Amino acid sequence: MKYYILLALALLFTHSACNSQNGVKNRQDVKDKTNTSASAGSVETLPPNSDHQPAFIGQTRINAVSTVTPYTSEVRAKDLGRPWGIIEMPDGNLLITEKSGFMQMYSKTGQLVKKITGFPTVDNDGQGGLLDVALDPDYKINQTIYWSYSLPQDGGKNQTAVGKGRLNIQAGKIENPRLIFKADPAFKSNLHFGSRLVFDSDGNLFVSSGERSHLDGRMQAQKLSSGLGKIFKITREGKPAPGNPFLNTPDAKPEIYAYGIRNAQGLAIHPVTGDLWELEFGPRGGDEINIIRAGKDYGWPTITYGIEYSGKEIGKNITQAPGMEQPIYYWDPVISPSGISFYTSDQIPEWKNNLFIGCLSGQHIDRIVLNGNKVVGEERLLANEGERFRDVLCSPDGHIYAVTDSGKLYVVSKK
Ligand SMILES: [Ca+2]
Predict the structure, then answer these.
(1) Model confidence over 98-121: pLDDT tens digits?
(2) Which of 75, 175, 290, 326 has the CA that lies 20 to 30 A from 117?
(3) Residues 362, 368, 373, 376: what is their CA dihedral angle, to the nearest 10 degrees?
(4) Which entry of 192, 214, 364, 399 is annotated as an active-site residue?
(5) Is residue 30 part of a domain?
(6) What confidence tens digit (pLDDT) does each residue in 350-381 have?
(7) 360: domain CATH number?
(8) 280: CA distance to ligand 1 center in Å?
(9) pTM (predicted TM-score)
């Protein structure tokens, strides 16, 4: 008897879960018919965590697309430790950060070329460590690189910081390493450092900071007097970039470019428009793609498409507010987006100017197809590998290089 009651309950649960999935799918199918000729249904089949509704058609659960060009993936190295950021050097080698405080140069075939040491001490606890890396726009002349890290401070505190120095490859050393910027205030947390680095075409550096996964830090994301939950734009010396939006605002940190950010681990410049694209982690639901514009408020924690991990509502439980920017796309449930990269090669023509996203909990590389600034299709690549993809690099050579939390270097190539 007990067995039959359990079976009946199980069937009832499965049925209602399917209904809610189909409900979402059906709504989306209707909405997306005008947007894309892709196959019906989204890549996401799980029910959302919240009852929030998108602000516009195609803001979430866009129709799935499939790459037609045959492609293949391969693990080229397995000994990266805990990689966080990957960039390409002018000579075609890959420079990969290691969270505990060093970098490694690898050939594209997966051979270790050089270990680079001499970086300042990092707080490697939790999500902290030596995180992203960027080349100076004049690297070929000055061999200067920039890195982001969690800077240890007194009392168990730490903060997102940016350093720079001269890369001496032959010696495997960073020369003259120095701190150029830190996102005040320091905080006692081992979470949400943001910290992705990307240079603008004007030679200034965008830096993201997180809100430290703390209720007080979260509120500071809305405060221009705090460096938590922000996008900064700084010069190569760490000063506020000329033209920054809050240079003349009393009490505002002049390095701030945009605010209301939760935890952005994805930054990239769009290859056609030159806009700054940002990927950030939502709470339970509500991972976002944003196009970052000077002086704009991206809403966290006032508006969000997510809920607390506990299941509680966040703030007033609203998704839209005057003066706050909408994400161009969001996910519920989350994919945990980390590093991002736009594909610019002609090797796989259907990927040209698509956005690729390394997903942690999602355990795949997400492909986003765009029509202008509108998301029109989504695909999950390498979804059967069971890997947390920390960063992706779409090389001009037509291959996608990706690093995982398990220490692997993947290469995705045309067959
Ligand atoms: Ca937002």
Answers:
(1) 999 999 999 999 999 999 999 999
(2) 75
(3) -110
(4) 192
(5) no
(6) 999 999 999 999 999 999 999 999 999 999 99
(7) 2.120.10.30
(8) 8
(9) 0.90
Give the Å distances, CA to CA, from 74 to 108, 391, 401, 415.
Answer: 12, 16, 10, 11
Strands 71-77 and 409-414: antiparallel
**Would you say residue 11 lies in a domain?**
no
Query: Does the active-site annotation cover 192?
Result: yes
- Rounded to the nearest 5°, which phi and psi values hold at 135? -90, 140
- At residue 402, the pLDDT reads 99
The answer on pLDDT for 283 being more than 50 is yes
Inter-residue contact 276 to 269 (CB < 8 Å):
yes
Residue range 295-318, pLDDT digits in tens: 999 999 999 999 999 999 999 999
Range of the domain at 282: 41-414
- How far, in Å, from the CA of 117 to the mean position of ligand 1? 37
Å from CA of 165 to ligand 1 middle: 34
- Count structural domains, the chain: 1
209, part of any domain: yes
Quote the ligand 1 centre to 9 CA distance (angstroms).
38
